[in-house]
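Archive entry. Fields below.
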Amino acid sequence: MGGNSIGNLFRVTTFGESHGKALGGIIDGVPPGMKLSEDDLQIDLNRRCPGKSLYITPRYEHDKVYILSGIFEGVTTGTSIGLLVQNKDQHSEDYQSIRDLYRPGHADYSYEKKYGMRDYRGGGRSSARETVIRVAAGAIAKKYLAYRCGIKIRGFIAQIGHIKCELKDWNQVEQNPFFCPDIDCLEALDILIRNLKKYGNSIGAKVTIIAENVPAGLGEPVFDRLDADLAHALMSINAVKGVEIGDGFAVISQLGNENRDEITSQGFLSNHAGGILGGISSGQPVIAHIALKPASSVKQPCNTVTRYGNEVEIITEGRHDICVGIRAVPIAEAMMAIVLMDHFLRNRAQCSDVK
Amino acid sequence: MGGNSIGNLFRVTTFGESHGKALGGIIDGVPPGMKLSEDDLQIDLNRRCPGKSLYITPRYEHDKVYILSGIFEGVTTGTSIGLLVQNKDQHSEDYQSIRDLYRPGHADYSYEKKYGMRDYRGGGRSSARETVIRVAAGAIAKKYLAYRCGIKIRGFIAQIGHIKCELKDWNQVEQNPFFCPDIDCLEALDILIRNLKKYGNSIGAKVTIIAENVPAGLGEPVFDRLDADLAHALMSINAVKGVEIGDGFAVISQLGNENRDEITSQGFLSNHAGGILGGISSGQPVIAHIALKPASSVKQPCNTVTRYGNEVEIITEGRHDICVGIRAVPIAEAMMAIVLMDHFLRNRAQCSDVK
Amino acid sequence: MGGNSIGNLFRVTTFGESHGKALGGIIDGVPPGMKLSEDDLQIDLNRRCPGKSLYITPRYEHDKVYILSGIFEGVTTGTSIGLLVQNKDQHSEDYQSIRDLYRPGHADYSYEKKYGMRDYRGGGRSSARETVIRVAAGAIAKKYLAYRCGIKIRGFIAQIGHIKCELKDWNQVEQNPFFCPDIDCLEALDILIRNLKKYGNSIGAKVTIIAENVPAGLGEPVFDRLDADLAHALMSINAVKGVEIGDGFAVISQLGNENRDEITSQGFLSNHAGGILGGISSGQPVIAHIALKPASSVKQPCNTVTRYGNEVEIITEGRHDICVGIRAVPIAEAMMAIVLMDHFLRNRAQCSDVK
Amino acid sequence: MGGNSIGNLFRVTTFGESHGKALGGIIDGVPPGMKLSEDDLQIDLNRRCPGKSLYITPRYEHDKVYILSGIFEGVTTGTSIGLLVQNKDQHSEDYQSIRDLYRPGHADYSYEKKYGMRDYRGGGRSSARETVIRVAAGAIAKKYLAYRCGIKIRGFIAQIGHIKCELKDWNQVEQNPFFCPDIDCLEALDILIRNLKKYGNSIGAKVTIIAENVPAGLGEPVFDRLDADLAHALMSINAVKGVEIGDGFAVISQLGNENRDEITSQGFLSNHAGGILGGISSGQPVIAHIALKPASSVKQPCNTVTRYGNEVEIITEGRHDICVGIRAVPIAEAMMAIVLMDHFLRNRAQCSDVK
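PREDICTED_STRUCTURE:
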């Protein structure tokens, strides 16, 4: 199967390169009868859009999304929805210098080994620019899930470098350029990013995504488990190197009687499981964490080779993010929404109704 | 799509419950012409098989696998391969006591919410017993990949509780009951497990899986990336709560110039990426780590409710593993083999050959 | 994707060769809560089973089916259902003579070109023996659809050679060895088959399948249309060379005002469309016709070549059906049931419920 | 899975309605390294394009196709290819009169039953306008197959009404407005169509598609057989009611010794099978026939009901084809190309190379 689709009943297929004519996608499986407009999608596209502060690349992307099909008189028809976002403000010439080089940490080397050639302009298809359509598709899923059963999917920056942010206030998240929920971290984050900018370096981050009001029963064991599909979707985001559900790697040193979530007639007493038991949602909030590596394009020179095997030293400045993890918040929300939407539809299909 | 299949060109579909008549699977997509026998599969099934030491459940499972189709005169024919493993030594009566209870940490609650009922005997389909067929399927993939391009897939215990094991000696891994590569950890692990057994508790673990000689080019961006499919496959293993590729969560506090793997004419100077760049294998060893939670069935009593909402205190002794992570080593190897096999075939299909 | 699966939400995967150890399958996607027993499946297996008359091969196949999983206390659990049918009464030695020959009309040649080798015993995987599991899977779908919304799926022989049978009496269908609904054809059919048997020849047939009480709305345009999926499923039956929906090829010479089915407040005035409009069920009976070629193994000698290219004349007697179309009736019913079941679940998943 | 995709390794996904903003698609799985331009696609789009004669609807569709991604420096990159065709010349107001009516023979009724509403403008998604993208996708597959192994896929009109056309001259096909290969039929066809136009009626047709130089071995039994996938793809074309492979329905009255294709050291002596044995290509030309119903929109009045159940008489003139079968030739060629391309890649993936 082509690698550019995700989901079964709710299926998102995308195309587009960093410096191509446009990015686009087809969203298949949206039930008919839901009000939907381009504005519904633009909200999250704007949250993802860089250029709003010094913390992310100054490259200005006017990501205006167009819905080309699947809507009639303002309502979804149940047919496939075509999405289009034109590319603008491209400085392809910036990339001439790396056309024959493999930028360490980037996909240049592996793409060329796989395809025998590559679109070197801004990383081509391997650029995070591709996530624009993921965010638009996720916005459709978010809206459906909210209308249909009140599911609320939100994310925030949990850590940048050594600075850990606690979930103190959801309202704070949209009020600072870091998607940070912890007002006490803002100054430290500000200093960290300013210093990194000064020295032309970048840093990794941890993002947490939480879905509330998820009904119990979502997930199709033994392979299409909800946690497994979330891991797939989240790991498919550029720069993600790790995924956790609930306590994640902390379970390694936990004892059996510490880890299990006890149950009372009032519900669960804890949520170490992150809302998923045996690959199926339990009705508790679904919690996932992801680790994003630092951008590889920094001012520090490094060693690499050309397509012809010659060793060279390069400095890949470009106009890149100091912390790609920040922009990953709306992207990760979108991927969780896409997975939950798909499983919501699958669960409805398989529900019991025969005696 | 049914949730009991994994893979596209190399597709594994399974059935069977902990205490049903049998476990089985269908392996579709094995290329014709490879010598294959039941013995090839039995090796890994025995490695997974409990009962060989006090560290894992004394339940004796004689997991003899039968190949029912797809082989003619000792060679694969290219048609689907049917596998069967009969269930024996079942003590279903042991589970009468929990037929109306939800065991905390188990899938009892979520399965019943999803399906409206459940096979309570040993967890039914949610039992790790289901992984028997995964291991058999993985053995087929391992053999193909080894023959075809010398890929070698091996795993080991990297941590149990607070005891971290270093990869000092691959040969040591198969010589101790922990799949531990670090002889200096054996005594500590022995004491830890003995104490947990004495107090009837369990503990989590970390398992590392490494695939060597993986050719560059495996992975189908932007969604069926190699890292994303590995995350899906590994997270689908019972008790797994986290997956890392390469440096994983350590990247959060790394700087851009630390994380990227520099390249020379002799190859990469490091492997922070875990052998995957942009979702495509780079030719370096593919490295993944998983976190497994402690078994939830321990002697410490805990609170739960019945199907009817009544609160009760239970002790779910049964005959369970002290550290399920140990048995997860051959299972995780199998899942990585299944994913690499699928991507090896997919990559071959898409290779360039037109000018 | 492996070629041995069909369906998305209701997914049937099979294995097994004509003379292998066993045939089996995995049925994934059966909703939980339906009473199901091996007897429910055996009924159709017996209808398909040869040996009940001279009209079909004397080979006695005792197709006892075993359900190995997915049922608990007599009810489906929503997990995958494993099926097994053992092979018996094999006369593999009968096939030694053709191990190096390509039987014209059989798949010997194409299988060997594809796989580089073949299991020559009774055609191996290409044998109609494989349809045993399709019939068992179809029986599950039939039962679900009948319970869930009263859908009734039945087939009959519409033509053998030049003898056309009219649908005069459904009850007659199960009372003669031809699945013929037209009592006035029985004698002619009897004579035809006896003569063919005498001269060791075979004949083609046409089978009609009708599903009643199919709710309007099944089918997922523009590719997974109900008619397209039926065409796929029916054409996948051994020896089928043509598929029609409704009037089929008769539409070629129809005028626009003849073909369209007019509508009144009482419903449609005709059913030229065969119950499908724009790829979606209209609520009228779904009608399909298939053409089956005559068995290629007959007493008349014919020319062929060996694997080594040598020309030879062969007579492939074996113990084969005079009219394979007869046995195809329950198989075609099963394939229609599998498709309708899949689309019933898919339609439920996509139904509108948001404003 | 969403119903708007077809194929596994070569996957075509489409969107767009008759009177929406645009039609588009994503072609996933095109191997890298093939030269490809918009002109390569435009050729077939023009062949499909109406308005070139009185025989087809005067509606002028300027189907200029844009490739938005997947090509770099004139060559495919192996990433997904985005296609876009803008809609123009729309007379939506023409359809106001039928907004509350179900046009007999059209999908109005079934779409509304399924989705609870419909885009009534020109049939919305159910319009044959949707096939524009299929033709563009097919053109990519045709080019690849021609370059890669000389496969040549061509179609022609085999029958309109009672007028049967013989394959006398391939060159003639592109030289008349009927795609007719039989110069002796042209006058009769001309008179037939002129009369139908005069009386405002329409007629059915039969189209034959032949693929030459298809290598032996394409097809994945037992369900994803080449013939089964062709039946699926061809039956998914608007107005198609029947599909035949090789002799098709003629096999019903054939004897076993007539139907089988004998083999000599020079190859097969006949091609009753249509180039497919056991669901796998035999190396002979692959031959398929399809039956297309007459357009339902004609000047003759007919009975129908409104959405509210009121009986009315309608005349759905519009600007429609007298024989939709004519335009179906390039569409059917495209669908066969899409299926062969997918199976070519799948076969390459599964080929034997291990001992």
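CURATOR_NOTE: The domain at 5-351 of chain A is CATH 3.60.150.10 (Chorismate synthase, AroC fold).
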